[in-house]
Design a protein that fits this description.
By secondary structure, the chain is mainly alpha-helical. The protein contains 2 helices and no strands.
Length: 106
């Protein structure tokens, strides 16, 4: 069973970009680039987390479907077996009663 969804940690919170006009100094430009790369890395991490979650959900749904099919098939087999046992029991009661009557007449 896939356990990766339980082992993954949620992505770190997205750093909030500051609303600044066009950078006026190289330091501001550098800071904006750092924020841009942080946001990009955060988005990639979040996207990977979503893909893993979706994959896990599909895997669980597939396994649940297989399990439900097995349960249904077992139920059908059990019902057929019950009908067969009931029929054999009914036949035994009918033939058993008839045999006793024939033996008592003889």
């Amino acid at each position: 069973m896939p356990a990766s969804s339980w082992e993954t940690t949620p992505p770190t919170p997205c750093p909030v970009p500051e609303e600044t006009p066009t950078p006026s100094t190289p330091a501001e430009a550098k800071q904006l680039l750092v924020q841009l790369f942080q946001l990009q890395a955060w988005q990639e991490q979040l996207q990977a987390s979503f893909q893993m979650t979706q994959h896990d959900q599909c895997a669980w749904a597939h396994m649940f479907g297989r399990y439900a099919d097995k349960l249904f098939n077992q139920h059908v087999i059990d019902q057929a077996w019950i009908q067969e046992l009931n029929a054999a029991h009914t036949n035994k009661q009918r033939t058993g009663a008839g045999d006793q009557n024939q033996l008592s007449k003889a």
